């Protein structure tokens, strides 16, 4: 039997299309697994990495964060996985810069504490939607102490509990607004917060109310409503719960303006953002930016993801939009991402 060979969709320089070419078969280090990818996803960041090379540490690069597939090899000290296991995992080229850690390849290295067994009932194309969004959600909710997201930009530190497998989890008496509840990161944060006993009020498009509710949001406010601020404030007051603050999964100039108005009316709180938050926030606002490669998610990967997928407590949402098959389809998938998606995650099968 001939040994399998590896190929990748390489990013050779900023602003150029991906090029499919050979790449050495990765060798897993201690604590790492090699995944034979069956499906990968496209994240908004990938388009910026391609356009301007942001975060690229080494050229040529293999980018991409989300993989689902079968374990091909395990490194030393790996006890949770064996060859042939079906997994979903978070590839971290973003922080290591190593080509073997990028998802746009047939075989990718994934840290074993950023992976989980995918139940047989869940397709690889569904399982691939989870990793980056899951780690972003846990980073947004459960960090206890601010760290560095980017130079000079701290992470948020909401210090909230991890999600529980108990379907009757005790409510913790706190309410969080998720701005952008239909986005991949917003819908996952809604799911994870709900599973931690947090009351979530989401802001999303009317066409995505059902999605946000299926993620656990108790109330959803129309993002297009001119009274979005007043409605959010009223929903928080009506909950009679302690206001945590806002997770802004969009983090644009208009959403920041709404966030600050809501926070002002509710006496301050956390503003956890996905991009650098406004520089000047009032003293009663604790603002930070998540960085979704963070060890805070390890216990969730280890103890929550697989049983929660089995029980349906964790759902692979938003739904995958499979746009092609093979490494040669990834460039077209990136073009689709540039046009934007509504409550969907772009997936390529390999
Ligand atoms: N810092 C980090 O570590 C990190 C990690 C992951 C992602 N991110 C960033 O987080 C952002 C979201 O990523 P994603 O993958 O979750 O995005 P996504 O799923 O592609 O976002 C698309 C969704 O956002 C909704 N949306 C857009 N503008 C909105 C607004 N003003 N109010 C409410 N909803 C709005 C859209 O709703 P409609 O359907 O109504 O159009 C759509 O459903 C991106 O900027 C990404 O780069 C940062």
From TrEMBL:
Residues 15-348 form the Enoyl reductase (ER) domain. Signal peptide: none annotated. The keyword Oxidoreductase applies. The keyword Magnesium does not apply. Keywords: Oxidoreductase. Pfam families: ADH_N. Belongs to the zinc-containing alcohol dehydrogenase family. This is Zinc-binding alcohol dehydrogenase domain-containing protein cipB. It comes from Aspergillus keveii.
């Amino acid at each position: 039997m001939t040994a399998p060979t590896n190929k990748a969709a390489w990013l050779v320089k900023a602003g150029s299309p991906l090029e499919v070419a050979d790449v050495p078969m990765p060798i897993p280090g201690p604590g790492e697994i090699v995944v034979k990818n069956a499906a990968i996803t496209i994240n908004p960041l990938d388009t910026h990495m391609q356009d301007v090379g942001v975060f690229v540490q080494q050229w040529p690069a293999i980018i991409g964060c989300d993989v689902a597939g079968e374990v091909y090899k395990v490194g030393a000290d790996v006890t949770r996985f064996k060859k042939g296991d079906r997994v979903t995992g978070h590839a971290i080229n973003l922080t290591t810069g190593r080509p073997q850690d990028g998802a746009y390849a047939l075989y990718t290295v994934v840290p074993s504490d950023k992976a989980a067994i995918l139940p047989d009932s869940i397709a690889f194309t569904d399982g691939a939607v989870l990793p980056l969004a899951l780690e972003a959600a846990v980073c947004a909710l459960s960090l206890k102490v601010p760290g560095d997201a980017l130079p000079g930009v701290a992470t948020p530190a909401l210090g909230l509990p991890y999600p529980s497998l108990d379907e009757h989890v005790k409510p913790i008496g706190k309410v969080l607004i998720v701005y952008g509840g239909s986005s991949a990161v917003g819908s996952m944060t809604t799911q994870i917060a709900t599973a931690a006993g947090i009351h979530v009020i989401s802001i999303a498009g009317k066409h995505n109310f059902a999605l946000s509710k299926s993620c656990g949001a108790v109330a959803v406010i129309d993002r297009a409503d001119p009274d979005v601020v007043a409605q959010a404030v009223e929903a928080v007051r009506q909950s009679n719960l302690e206001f945590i603050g806002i997770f802004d999964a969009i983090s644009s100039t208009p959403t920041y303006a709404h966030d600050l108005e809501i926070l002002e009316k509710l006496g301050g709180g956390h503003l956890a953002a996905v991009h650098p938050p406004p520089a000047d926030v009032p003293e009663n606002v604790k603002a930070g930016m998540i960085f979704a490669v963070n060890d805070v998610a390890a216990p969730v990967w280890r103890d929550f993801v697989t049983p929660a997928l089995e029980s349906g407590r964790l759902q692979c949402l938003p739904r995958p939009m499979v746009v092609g098959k093979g490494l040669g389809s990834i460039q077209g998938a990136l073009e689709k991402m540039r046009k934007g998606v509504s409550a969907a995650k772009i997936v390529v099968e390999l």
